[in-house]
Structures are given as structure tokens and as C-alpha cells.
Write a structure and sequence with these properties.
Layout: E1 4-7, H1 11-14, H2 33-36, H3 42-56, H4 63-76, E2 83-85, H5 87-98, E3 100-103, E4 106-111, E5 114-120, H6 125-128, E6 136-140, E7 143-144, H7 152-159, E8 166-173, E9 178-185, E10 187-190, E11 194-199, E12 204-209, H8 216-229, E13 234-238, E14 244-246, H9 247-255, E15 263-268, E16 274-278, E17 290-294, H10 301-311, E18 316-319, E19 327-333, E20 339-348, H11 363-372, E21 392-394, E22 400-402, E23 411-412, H12 418-428, H13 431-443, H14 452-458, H15 463-475, H16 486-502, H17 504-511, H18 516-525, H19 533-540
Helix pairs in contact: 8-9, 9-10, 13-16, 16-17
Length: 541
């Protein structure tokens, strides 16, 4: 069965993504020259050219690479989101969208030319065999996994294998200065798309979703039920930086908030065929406050949910204008292990909005429009967002919404200062986590007696650890006004410790007090409580 996609990889982080499609099969060289140029031989031209190069060209040429270039060039002429997936990348792409892979279940660093375990995946193969944070994996069967020259990809490939197959690991454990062997049976390791969920307040739950994979709705539903059991009667759904994924998953998630019969979206192809998707009676979170967080990197499936709720006057959209992708792709196999995700239709929000921004001037201009948002003031002031009266639409309750170039939130939250964003970037690039790993590698025992609850409520990052982090940054040529942002940096250090000691939920919950969008949600929900970042950080730190 063919699957529909609504997916985007912004070129800011994926500028080298292959684009295109190659169509057709082998030609026969006994065809007449006239046939090559008839109107019925468009496919023949491409195939004949490849054959000429393959059989007649003076030098040896890798025709596979020529085909890939041809495929890419063809799709570049279509739209920015029709993408070609070469055979060599199919497994990785499929794993990411399926939501699991077969392996031993560890998160690791390449630390001083050695594989150092950050954490074993909870209840995964390595966890069940007693692999601990800080362990070094030296060998997998007869393969040496330390020393220079090994890429992370080659290491992962040596640890992967068929489900149920065994791998013998040689492990060094610093605590006790011992080396031991352990047999681990490979199993399914989840790639979580619901990366965090917790209670944001006494009655509001929080769920962060980073993509829309096959497993996402199941993960989302489980998280939602867990929060409801903890007393959640409101929800903050975080779709920031979420590039999209499966269209059907977004439909199911939107259905949780919309009453039976409400329009979620409709699609239209080039023949004018319209398919409408309506909510069902299955929704379990209807008539309850919901806040959807979006930003400039929220795209496609994320925009479907935000648009469906906004156009049905449900919930509150908080943040900054979303990316602006309203195209739907379908994956099609090309017969040699590769595939193309080809744009087959446009989608529209319930009021009839297309939020797709123009790509008529080509891909370079298309993605330049995205980066221009950083320079035209749009991320700082909602008044800088340019809207067209011709793209004005009205919701059932009479609110004005706009099409073209993304979803404009109901409540705008500006981007942080340059230095606040620099701290966020340090976190996303792994500077905090790498520093924390080195710290724990030497002083893990001092945290052994701290429970998760005690760490969250009582532990405070001291000045010694703060100064060590400054030294670490300076050694790595990173300079900001550290002392002007001491509260925030200490909070991020505490969150980094929590992630490696207890998991991502505690990390996300600790960071929430420095999160302007989440604090805006709490302010909207309960405007009586005053909130300043320093006070919140100090109270939770």
C-alpha cells in the first residue's frame, strides 16, 4: 500500500538533501534516430543517454552517480519537497519513519577514540544485560571499536544486526577498573517521537513531539492517557522544530481534540479531486483547553494540527509563524531499491487556507525566504509579519486568519536575545551534554544516592561546576557573557545532569522554567501568577 507523506527537511539543516526522480527502463540501440526525438519518447531520451555513456563513453564512468544527478535535477524543476531517496539511504530513512530499529539499545559518545555509553535505552537489550552509563565498549565480536578512523556510522552498523542475533561485547568499566565480556541479543529499539511528557502544572500536561512517524500516534495516546491519570485536564502540545511526517498520523492526533464531523483538512490534486478528512467520535480530549506551541521550524503535519484547531476555534496557538508547507507527498518505489517522495496534492485547512509559500522562483529563493525571517524582524515582532488581504479567511466564530506562508499564532512569543539563543544552540549542539558526561565520568558516585525527586527539588548547581563549564567553553573557543546569564546556564547544567542521570522527561521539566513559550502558556492559563525567569529558575534550581 502506498503511503502519503507530509514532510519537510529545511535546507538550513539539510542543504545537501538529494532531490529528483529517474523514470524509464532500458532502451534498445536498434531504435531509429528519429524515434529518439518523437513526442512519445521522453523517457527513451533519458535512458538512451545513460546507455550511451555506459557503453560508448571514452572513460569509465559511475553511471549510478549520473542517474542520481539526473534524478535530482529533474525534481529540482518541480517543487522543493519532492525528494529522491537513493538505495543507500532507504534503510535509515525507513527506520526513522517507522519508529524503531534492530540493535543493542545504547546512546553513546565517541569519547577519546572510545565508545562511551551515555545511557542504555530503558528496558532495551543492553539495559537488561546491565550495561551502565560510563561503560566503554571496546569490541563487538572480533571487531575493534576504539581508535582513530572509525566513523559513528560504521560503529552503529557493527552493533546492528538481525533481530534475535547475538553480539559479544568486550566492555571496560571505570568503576572497579575491570574489563568483562557480555553477550547481548539484538532486539527492537524504539526511536521515540514523543520525546517528553510530564505535568507542567497541577492540571496541565505537556507533550513534546519531534516528528510524525508510524509509531507517533500510539506514543502520543499513551502519553496523553498517562497525563490524564495524573490529573491533566489541559494540555500543552509542543510541535516546535517538528518538520512533519505522515499525514494520517496528524489527522489522528487532531481528531483527539475535535468533535465528530468537524473538518480537519482537505486535499486537492491537479485534476481537481478533493478529499475531505473529518474528525470522528474517537477523540478523548474534546472540550478541554489545549495550547499548541509552534515556531518557524514547525512544518507540514505540525501545521495541519495547528491549522485544524485554529480554524475550528479550538485551543490556542502559541509561538511564532510556522514554516509554510502545504504540499502532500507519496512515496513511490523506483524498482532498484530507491524511491521518490513525489508531491501529489495540496492540503487546505478547514477554512480553505493554503499555507504553502510560493516556490515559483526556485528552491534557492524558497529557502531564502525562510532565512530572511531572521533579518526582517518577524521573529521579534508580530507586526513584522507580512500578510495579504487576498489571503484573509474567517473562522466560524468570526476570527480572521491568513493563508500563505505558514500558520500565524494566536499568541505571539518573540525569539530570545542573541545570547539566550546562543545558550540554546550550545545545548542543541551537545556542548552541555558533553561537559556533563566528562563531569559524571569523574564524579558519578556523588550523585548515586540522589533520587530523581530529590535531584529535581533539592539539587542546585554550585559555582564550582559553573566555573568549570566556563573553562570548558573557553577551551572550545565559545565566548558569551557567562556571568550575565548565570541563572540560565546553571539551569541548563542541571537539566543536562538530569538527562544523563534520569532521562529526558526530567531534563525537559527542569528546562521549562527558562522556556518563554511555556511560561506564556502558563501565564495565559493563569494570568494572576507573576512570572520572571530568574525567580522561576531560582525556585526550581
Amino acid at each position: 500500500m502506498k503511503k502519503q507523506y507530509n514532510y519537510i527537511w529545511p535546507t538550513v539543516i539539510a542543504s545537501a538533501l538529494a532531490l529528483g526522480i529517474f523514470v524509464g527502463g532500458k532502451l534498445h540501440f536498434n531504435d531509429s534516430p528519429e524515434k529518439l526525438f518523437t513526442t512519445n519518447s521522453k523517457k527513451d531520451k533519458l535512458n538512451r543517454l545513460i546507455d550511451y555513456i555506459d557503453y560508448e563513453y571514452v572513460d569509465e564512468i559511475d553511471t549510478d552517480s549520473i542517474v542520481d544527478v539526473t534524478v535530482n535535477n529533474i525534481l529540482e524543476k518541480l517543487d522543493p519537497h519532492s525528494v529522491y531517496i537513493p538505495e543507500r539511504e532507504m534503510d535509515k530513512v525507513s527506520e526513522n519513519m517507522k519508529g524503531d530499529f534492530v540493535g543493542i539499545g545504547i546512546n553513546f559518545y565517541r569519547y577519546r577514540d572510545t565508545i562511551a555509553v551515555i545511557r542504555a535505552v530503558d528496558k532495551g537489550p543492553s539495559y537488561l544485560k546491565g550495561i551502565l552509563p560510563g561503560d566503554r565498549i571496546l569490541m563487538a565480536d572480533s571487531d575493534t571499536l576504539y581508535g582513530k578512523g572509525l566513523s559513528s556510522e560504521s560503529i552503529v552498523n557493527r552493533l546492528k544486526g538481525k533481530r534475535g542475533s547475538s553480539v559479544k561485547l568486550k566492555v571496560y568499566r571505570k568503576e572497579g577498573d575491570k574489563t568483562f565480556m557480555v553477550d547481548i541479543k539484538r532486539g527492537l529499539v524504539p526511536i521515540k517521537s514523543v520525546v517528553a511528557h510530564y505535568m507542567l502544572s497541577d492540571d496541565m500536561g505537556y507533550i513534546q513531539v519531534n516528528r510524525f512517524a508510524e509509531s507517533t500516534y500510539k506514543e502520543f495516546k499513551a502519553a496523553l492517557l498517562d497525563l490524564e491519570r495524573q490529573g491533566a485536564r489541559k494540555l500543552a502540545l509542543d510541535l516546535r522544530d517538528n518538520p512533519g511526517g505522515y499525514l494520517g498520523v496528524a489527522e489522528h492526533m487532531a481528531d483527539e481534540f475535535l468533535k465528530d464531523g468537524k473538518l480537519i483538512l482537505f486535499t486537492k490534486n491537479k485534476k481537481g479531486k478533493i478529499d475531505k478528512i473529518f474528525a470522528t467520535e474517537k477523540g478523548s480530549f474534546e472540550d478541554r483547553p489545549v495550547y499548541v506551541l509552534i515556531n518557524e521550524r514547525s512544518a507540514s503535519a505540525s501545521e495541519i494540527i495547528a491549522g485544524a484547531l485554529q480554524d475550528n476555534d479550538i485551543g490556542t496557538i502559541v509561538g511564532r509563524r510556522s514554516f509554510g508547507k502545504g504540499l502532500v507527498q507519496r512515496e513511490m518505489e523506483l524498482g532498484d531499491g530507491s524511491a521518490v517522495r513525489l508531491t501529489v496534492s495540496r492540503y487546505y485547512t478547514p477554512t480553505g487556507r493554503s499555507i504553502q509559500k510560493s516556490y515559483k522562483k526556485g528552491n534557492k529563493d524558497y529557502y531564502q525566504k525562510f532565512t530572511d525571517r531572521y533579518h526582517n524582524g518577524e521573529l521579534i515582532s508580530v507586526d513584522s509579519i507580512k500578510v495579504a488581504d487576498s489571503l484573509k479567511f474567517t473562522t466560524p466564530k468570526g476570527r480572521t486568519v491568513y493563508g500563505g506562508g505558514g500558520i500565524i499564532p494566536d499568541v505571539f512569543v518573540p525569539i530570545g536575545s542573541n545570547e539566550e539563543e546562543a545558550i540554546e544552540t550550545m545545548d542543541s549542539m551537545g556542548f552541555f551534554s558533553r561537559f556533563i558526561f566528562e563531569h559524571l565520568d569523574n564524579e558519578r558516585e556523588q550523585y548515586a544516592s540522589l533520587s530523581e525527586k530529590a535531584f529535581h527539588t533539592d539539587f542546585k548547581v554550585d559555582d564550582i561546576l559553573f566555573e568549570r563549564y566556563i573553562d570548558f567553553c573557553v577551551r572550545n573557543r565559545l565566548k558569551i557573557n557567562f556571568y550575565d546569564h548565570e541563572h540560565r546556564i546553571k539551569l541548563f547544567l542541571k537539566a543536562g545532569l538530569a538527562e544523563q542521570l534520569y532521562g529526558v522527561n526530567v531534563y525537559a521539566k527542569i528546562k521549562s522554567s527558562a522556556d518563554a513559550m511555556l511560561q506564556k502558556v502558563l501565564e495565559i492559563d493563569n494570568p494572576i501568577l507573576p512570572r520572571t525567569e530568574a525567580d522561576l529558575i531560582e525556585s526550581k534550581n
